[in-house]
Amino acid sequence: MTTTPRQAVVIGSGFGGIASALRLRAKGYQVKIIDRSPMLGGRAQVFVRNGFKHDAGPTVITAPFLLEELFELFNEKLEDHVQLVPLTPWYRFYFSDKTTFDYGGTIEDTLAEIDKIEPRDKEGYKKLLIHSKNIYDIAFTKLSAILFDRFMLMISLVPKLLVLKSYESVWGMVSRHLMNPKLRQAFSIQPLLVGGNPFSTTSIYGLIHYLERRFGIFFPMGGTGAIVNAYKNLMERNNIEIILNQSVKKIIIDNGKAVGLTLDDGSKVGADIIVSNADPTYLYQNMVDQDDVAIASKVKIKLAHYSMGLMVIYFGTTRKYPDVVHHTIWLGKTYKELLSNIFDKKILSDDFSLYIHRPTATDASFAPEGCDSFYVLCPVPNLKADIDWSIEGEILKNKIIDALDQTILPDLKKHMTEDFFMTPKDFQSNYLSTHGAGFSIAPLFRQSAWFRFHNKAEGIKNLYISGAGTHPGAGLPGVLCSAKVIDHLIPAVADFK
């Protein structure tokens, strides 16, 4: 028995788009993936400057089984194509008084580090980890890959969510278990990895503690770009058509059903299934005729609160900094005040905190011999703030470099080379990110699960959404799980009607 070839098109080649394309191909669809960029990966681009290499996007790899699943769909193994190296420590926290806290490794390692700062918090950390596991067992294991398109499903889960205290913030959850201000900062920082303010992000995201503990944190040799390239080769081996340097202008809707695309060059592409990996707000405001957008989606756009913006500085050094670990969280003098300025007041403050990525701590190929490669990320307000980044970008860059020069990267200004940076304006123009947000809409409780943009477009048949703006949310595990939700929704070709 033969079936009619069914066409699926994926818009955008971030990890959510790549995962969607592979899952659709495994279901038997003829698949095209289209991206406006010259290379696959979405925000996971790779920049090369005079021998220095930089991953532009995600640099923290957790839940590696989600990466492995995509190869297993085609009876292959990730390990045959990408080498994942476990990191220890996972992060080094550097506080404004120059004390440090190494997080990661065994529980005993973490407890020993806690003991140096506040011995009384060792038992609190153990209880925090138990609570995190309880959240993980519900929110990640059972809910991260299901469709929240029915309000009653959300209502049915309320008792479980109340037991888990999901109404409280990550900061509130951590503060119930830990007393020391430094440790409270260190163990509440995780929401920032997915675009959220620890003081307002639902404690559901506290599951990250257990996720990290269970699976560890890894770095792929060759960088995140090596994973993207491995998936590119996997797609090509399985006859997925990759179209780059081409933008989607419109999704063609016929009688409430998505039937194809119009590209910027005027050509049209027919499709039985369309998956958008674009920011949902951009999708609904720019790629779909407003008459076809459901009222519910318009309401979500109107009420949406967006994640913070990002200032990312890339540079090399003509010397090595062997005392700097792979991942460093460099914390400023303030915490709650700084986050309030970023998320609420939307102003640039004199203070800042940084995430510093030194891939050459693990992979020497990122820089010429005797040199280091760096990526420094600074959370900043998104473009809803009145900030002229053409002026303030350079000013902030210089402040950050001065601060690093005086602390963990001595003589940086003397050894720094091949530097450039991105601001929220670049995120808006390069990635079509609404308001230049680094992680789409913020991970608030009122923007989670059913309240988030649905994986199945409301009011439009055969249109689906993956990526950071839809369920379950931002971060590499989140966007990979969004493709799993779609996988559960779309029938195999043989069952397509």
Describe, in plain words, how this protein is organized in 3D.
β1 (7-11), α1 (15-26) and β2 form a beta-alpha-beta unit. The protein is α/β, with parallel strands linked by helices and 497 residues long. The chain contains 16 helices and 19 strands. α1 packs parallel to α16, α4 (121-140) packs antiparallel against α6 (170-177) and α4 packs across α8 (207-215). The model has no long low-confidence stretch (mean pLDDT 92). The protein has a 7-stranded mixed sheet. The protein has a 5-stranded parallel sheet with strand order 9-2-1-13-19, with helices on one face. The chain has a 3-stranded antiparallel sheet with strand order 10-11-12, with no helix packed on it. It has 3 domains: 7-44 and 65-74 and 222-304 and 443-495, FAD/NAD(P)-binding domain (3-Layer(bba) Sandwich), CATH 3.50.50; 107-215, no CATH class; 308-431, no CATH class.
Strand order of the largest sheet: 7-6-15-16-17-14-18
Mean pLDDT: 92
The proportion of strand residues reads: 15-25%
Strand segment count: 19
Looking at CATH, which topology of the largest domain would you report? Answer: FAD/NAD(P)-binding domain
What does the largest sheet look like? 7 strands, mixed
Q: Specify the structural class.
A: alpha/beta
CATH class of the largest domain: Alpha Beta
Helix content: 25-40%
CATH 2nd-level architecture of the largest domain? 3-Layer(bba) Sandwich
- What's the domain count? 3
Characteristics of this structure?
19% strand, 497 residues, seven-stranded mixed beta sheet, 16 helices, five-stranded parallel beta sheet, 3 domains, alpha/beta
